[in-house]
Amino acid sequence: MFRSTHFFFLLSICSVFSFLDLTIRCPNGRQALHTFDVTTLSFSVQCSTPGQSCRERMGLCNEHHLCCPRTLKMSSKPYLYDRASNLKFVRIGNDYKDFYRLFEIDLLMNSKRSYDYHSRWLFFDETLRDLFEMPKARFWLPIIQCFQNHGLSYAFVPKNATSVTSNVSAMTILTRKNDSFDSIYICYMATRKEHRRQGLATRLLQHIVQRSLNERENGVQYITLHVNTMNTAALELYERCGWRCEMFLPGYLNYDPHHATNHAYLLKLRLNGVKNITSLCRDRYAVDIEPSDDEQSVRNCNRQPVY
Ligand SMILES: *[C@@H]1O[C@H](CO)[C@@H](O)[C@H](O)[C@H]1NC(C)=O
Ligand SMILES: *[C@@H]1O[C@H](CO)[C@@H](O)[C@H](O)[C@H]1NC(C)=O
Ligand SMILES: *[C@@H]1O[C@H](CO)[C@@H](O)[C@H](O)[C@H]1NC(C)=O
Ligand SMILES: *[C@@H]1O[C@H](CO)[C@@H](O)[C@H](O)[C@H]1NC(C)=O
C-alpha cells in the first residue's frame, strides 16, 4: 500500500523538486536520514551512519518514509531516549486504562550532531502521516513553525510496544502562537485508527487543559485550534469539552483529503471557565460556558454547540 502511494507521490513531486533524487536505497537496513534546511527550504537525504543498524521495515527507503523503525526498549525508567532523533520521551502521569503510557516529548535542542535536528522533524512528520492516514502529506514546515514558538508534544504509547517512535497511539503538538500570547494553540491532535474510541483524545485534552492552567500566571487565558467544518466527530468532542466556535474561516485548510471542504472553524476554550479537569468532556458542568459564547457560535459559525 505504501509503495503505490509513494509512486504517486513521487510522480507529483518530481516536477517541482526534479533536481533532487528523492529515493535512495540504504544498504544493510540502514536508515534514510532526511535533511531539511530551514534557511534554504531544501531537502536532502542520506543513509544513516554505518553501524547504526536497524531492522528493515519497508525495504525501500526514500525521503517519505523511514525504512525501519528506531526501536527503544520500554522499561520502568522515567524516560526513554531515542539516539537517532535525539528526542527524549519523558513519562508523565499514570498509565491510562493500564495500557497506554503518556509521554511528554522533549526536543533537547542543543544537539551537536546536525542530522539529529532533522530526524526529529522526521519523527513528527512520519507519525502525523501515519495517524492522519495521509501518506502523501508533508508536515515539515507547519511542524517546524509550531515548535518554533515554545512547541510541546504529548504522546500515548502502548505499554507493550516494542518501539516508541513507531507505536504512537495518539499524539498532540501544541504551541504558543506569536500573534496571540494569551493562547495555547493545538497545532495537531490525532489518534491512530486502531486506538480510536477509547478516550485517548479526551485524555490528551484533559492533560492539555491542566498544563495550560499552569500557564495562566504567564498570561495564558485560552486554548485555541482549527478544525475542518465537516469534521463532526472532532467538533462535537471539542464542544463537549467546552470549546466554542468563534469564527468561520473559508478556505483556511489548504489540504485535507478526509473532508469535502477546506473550510475551518476557529474554536476557543476559556480557561477561566474550567471547573473540574477530571470530569472535563464527560460532564457538561465541568466548564462554565458564557452564554455569549454560545450565541457567537450560532451567529458566526451557524453552529448550535453540542452542550
Ligand atoms: C499488546 O497488547 C495488546 C492488548 O493486550 C495485544 O492485543 C497486542 O497483541 C500486544 N502487542 C504485542 C506486540 O505484544
Ligand atoms: C509497533 O509497531 C510495529 C511497526 O509498525 C508493529 O509491527 C507492532 O505491531 C506495533 N506494536 C504495538 C504493540 O503496537
Ligand atoms: C515569534 O517570537 C519569537 C520570540 O519573540 C521571535 O524570535 C520570532 O521571530 C517570532 N516569529 C514570528 C514569525 O514573528
Ligand atoms: C470533579 O469531577 C469528579 C468526577 O466526576 C468528581 O469525582 C469530583 O468530586 C469533582 N471535583 C470537584 C472539585 O467538583
**Small ligands present:** 2-acetamido-2-deoxy-beta-D-glucopyranose
CATH level-two architecture of the largest domain:
3-Layer(aba) Sandwich
Total DSSP helices: 6
What's the β-strand tally? 11
Find the structural class using helix and strand composition. alpha+beta
Q: Tell me the helix content.
A: 10-25%
The total number of structural domains is 3
For the report, how would you describe the main beta sheet?
9 strands, mixed
What integer is the average pLDDT?
Answer: 76
Q: State which percent range the strand residues make up.
A: 15-25%
Please write the string of helix (H) and strand (E) elements.
HEEEEEHHEEEHEHEEH
Radius of gyration: 20 Å
The general outline is globular
Main sheet: strand order? 3-4-5-6-7-8-9-11-10
CATH class of the largest domain equals Alpha Beta
Assign the CATH topology of the largest domain.
Aminopeptidase
Pfam families: Acetyltransf_1
Keywords: Acyltransferase, Signal, Transferase
Protein name: N-acetyltransferase domain-containing protein
Signal peptide: 1-18
